[in-house]
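Sharing a chain and its predicted structure for anyone who wants a worked example. Both blocks are below, sequence first, tokens second.
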Amino acid sequence: MEFQGARNFSIESPGNDVFSSKYDDDGHVKRTGTWVTASAHIVTAVIGSGVLSLAWAVAQLGWIVGPTILTVFSAITLVTSFMLSDCYRYPDPVHGSRNPRYMEMVKNVLGGIQCQLCGWAQYIILFGTSIGYTITASISMVAIKRSNCFHKHGHEAKCHAANYPFMIIFAVVEILISQIPDFHELSGLSILAAIMSFGYATIGVGLSIAKIAEGGNHATSLTGVIVGEDVTSQQKLWNTFQAIGNIAFAYGFSMVIVEIQDTLKSSPPENQAMKKATATGISITTLFYMLCGLLGYEAFGNKAPGNFLTGFGFYEPYWLVDIGNVFIVIHLVGAYQVFSQPIFTLVEGWCAKRWPESNFMAKEYHVRIPLVGTYRVNAFRVIWRTLYVILTSVVAILLPFFNSIVGLLGAVSFWPLTVYFPTEMYLVRAKVPKFSVIWIGVKLLSGFCLIVTLVAAAGSIEGIITDLKTYDPFN
């Protein structure tokens, strides 16, 4: 399968003043993003559903290993993101040719075979993330319904509700929003989603502090859940692996980092602005993750729920729990789009190249929407993106296992996209001599992260198998 980026523009003479004012050096309509908008995209991509499982993850790991793993993943993500930023233009990070897609970057730096491997890894993970976000959004919508039921009928009431009707509601909203043509028109949605992520993370932290202040016996330990008391030794092992995957997922945004950098204007140089945005986004993220994970563990102890806003460790004030879950849903509406756009661009770019004369592929209709503006509608885009959203929703309905799916996505995406390709491209771009101290250090980092990925994936797969044994679809 050949992966191609979209190229849907016509290039005028480079000497034309109109050209230089409207287009960048690669013929693309002039990019206008700044480190602030890029930071918003990053926060939107990073602070997602992963934050909700951190209290559970820390409970599996304990007070020593939990914060250590959070810090290590933060540092690794920051370093490898800097490496990627310098490869946006190649071979020179300031004056070289642009690589507007992750795969294109891998192809130009490492070669075609590596590009194919990167393509499969990136797009499978993006597809899986869309499924994960559909599951998480539906869980939050169900939590709103259950929260109001508990408030009305008491905390012991059986307020059960199926997830799949809410997955359908989420899918309908995504079908409509997915008609936004490309990444460059998502800045407003990303900023709104980033605000929402701050909102529900803050609510989770506040509720945790309130629960800690109430007192109560919420046992914690340096090593997390206790074998023989909370779990069996086998459960402890698998849950530890799965928790590592959950934390990896919480930091995962490498699959869209190049597309985010491609929204930046040329001055200051894109790599400098992107490094500033990355440092800002990851610093903010790590602060919230530490607060959510550690305070959540202190509040719930070794009995921390898998999702600390929907697991009903908090019942009251019910309206604040509801607001937190509304924020989650709004955030995931935007995050779904951020992670789906590269897939949309891939398919639409390939089809435009395959059938360049087709009006069905290329012709756009301008639809005026009151209070919103003019919407550009394309027949192929409507049909293809609708089918994509439907497919992710169907898979989510069949496999609605929050912690296991989150852990598996984190495990599968962490090593290839966050570590392997960035480090390999760094070694080539910087021309690091083989077997030098830096070369050995980079290879050891990659090897360590591969081991982490394998054990986390194993734990998550075991969790999915266990869940499937008792799962009854549509019930």
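Comments welcome. Residues 112-153 form the longest helix (42 residues).
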